[in-house]
Design goal:
Order of helices and strands: EEEEEHH
Strand content: 35-45%
Number of strands: 5
Number of helices: 2
Distance between the termini: 33 Å
Radius of gyration: 18 Å
Shape: elongated
Number of domains: 2
Largest sheet: 5 strands, antiparallel
Helix content: 10-25%
Length: 111
């Protein structure tokens, strides 16, 4: 994994005999705004995982997702929530700034 990604510790680790899933992976982040006149919906899927010996390769460790699945967390109206939550406002602004850069690089947005 990249050095800049933090390890997020699970609040309640899942334990299967000889395995503990004690970290959280941000598996998916979705922002949906199907209508310019409508709400912006956000959701993130978090999934516990553990680090285990890679028996198949014979050395090293490998990340393994908890077989019980992940958890979706939803934000129904991101714009309204961001107006009241400075952390979301900062994150949303940074994401939109990067999306604008991608749009300009791909001739979708005028720089």
């Amino acid at each position: 994994m990249s050095d800049f990604l933090p390890i997020l510790n699970a609040k309640e680790p899942t334990v299967i005999p000889e395995k503990t899933y004690d970290r959280v992976w941000i598996e998916e982040i979705c922002i949906k705004a199907p209508d310019p006149n409508g709400e912006v919906l956000g959701e993130v899927k978090m999934h516990k995982y553990g680090m285990f010996d890679d028996i198949a390769a014979g050395s090293g460790v490998i990340a393994e997702l908890d077989p019980n699945g992940g958890k979706w967390i939803r934000i129904e109206n991101m714009l309204e929530t961001a107006a009241e939550d400075s952390d979301l406002q900062t994150a949303f602004g940074a994401l939109l700034g990067y999306v604008a850069k991608l749009g300009a690089e791909n001739d979708v947005i005028t720089p």
